[in-house]
Automatic annotation (TrEMBL):
Pfam families: DDAH_eukar. It comes from Thalassotalea piscium. This is Amidinotransferase. InterPro entries: Amdntrnsf_FN0238.
Length: 306
């Protein structure tokens, strides 16, 4: 694992049996679809697409721990990266969630499986901060550079900077907070729709970072650490190009991204990425109706196997 700190070779996924875009999160998630949809069709499609994505990742040599969600009270359970994260050295964090019905997604059976199969030293639980209306939605709220030890975070209702600082001091990251919005002035709700950090590249909607000085500082950071910098347009961000995750497959590192995102990247951008990773598009159009994509669906496991 230490060789590829940015690219885990195992993930947790949740397969939903009653998937549906979450009405509780619609107010501040501009990526969520407002178009009418056939609930039964979307539910069936989501189940099939998660299953197909699981099989594709396994074929690439990724360890996939899949959990079933048969309940009807957790429409966003397919996005486990928001309520927990794992870290080298055997650490797990559990996070405070903004939407009431998302708090029900936390599952002790997932944490127990991780303890059983991986070396876990401690679990730091921030979820009690929900009672103070303070939130930090995991690796949705933060995009972590595991190599440079920086936590990039867009300021929002789902990203409280005080909890972020607490997380950073516990887990040895430097916080890098900034504001970002689309051309209509709507704030970006989660950092991981804006930015994807790989081992030797970064792609992000840099122009959506509102403070020019901060934007240049962030770009300079990536360039000085030797990463190839790929600029995504606002349209590409809307197509979930920033919502991808680098993983370590059997033979090479891969970038798991959605078919929507893959089709929105230019040939030149794909060529830069393909110098670093194999692109593995996953068809998750039903899941994307909920305003998240492949990165949100994968909780990377940065723990050592027992």
């Amino acid at each position: 694992m230490a060789l590829y700190p940015q690219a885990p070779n195992a993930v947790v996924m949740i397969r939903p049996h009653h998937f549906c875009p979450n009405e509780e999160t619609l107010k501040d998630n501009s990526f969520q679809s407002t178009a009418p949809f056939d609930k039964a069709q979307v539910k069936k499609l989501a189940y099939e697409q998660i299953t197909a994505a699981e099989n594709t990742l396994k074929a690439e040599g990724i360890s996939v721990h899949i959990f079933e969600d048969t309940g009807t009270e957790t429409p966003d359970s397919v996005f486990p990266n928001n309520w927990f994260s794992t870290h080298t050295g055997g650490h797990i964090a559990i996070y405070p969630m903004y939407a009431n019905n998302r708090r029900k997604e936390r599952r002790s059976d997932i944490i127990e499986l991780l303890k059983k199969q991986y070396r876990v030293q401690d679990v730091i639980d921030y979820s009690g901060l929900e009672y103070d209306n303070i939130f930090l939605e995991g690796t949705g709220a933060m995009v972590l550079d595991h190599i440079e030890r920086v936590a990039y975070a867009v300021r929002s209702k789902r990203t409280d900077t005080h909890v972020l600082e607490r997380f950073c001091s516990h887990f040895n990251f430097e916080p890098m907070v900034f504001d970002a919005q689309d051309s209509a002035g709507i704030p970006v709700y989660h950092t991981n729709v804006l930015m994807c950090i790989g081992s030797d590249y970064v792609m992000a909607g840099f122009d959506m970072i509102t403070n020019v000085e901060r934007r240049n500082e962030i770009i300079h950071r990536f360039e000085s650490s030797g990463k190839k910098v790929i600029y995504l347009t606002e349209q590409q961000i809307s197509a979930f190009c920033g919502n991808a995750l680098e993983l370590k497959g059997t033979n090479e590192r891969i970038l798991a991204l959605s078919s929507t995102a893959y089709n929105a990247l230019t040939q030149a951008q794909k060529a830069v990425l393909e110098q670093c990773v194999k692109l593995v598009p996953l068809e998750v159009s039903a899941i994307e109706l909920a305003g998240g994509s492949v990165r949100c669906m994968l909780a990377g496991i940065h723990l050592s196997k027992r």
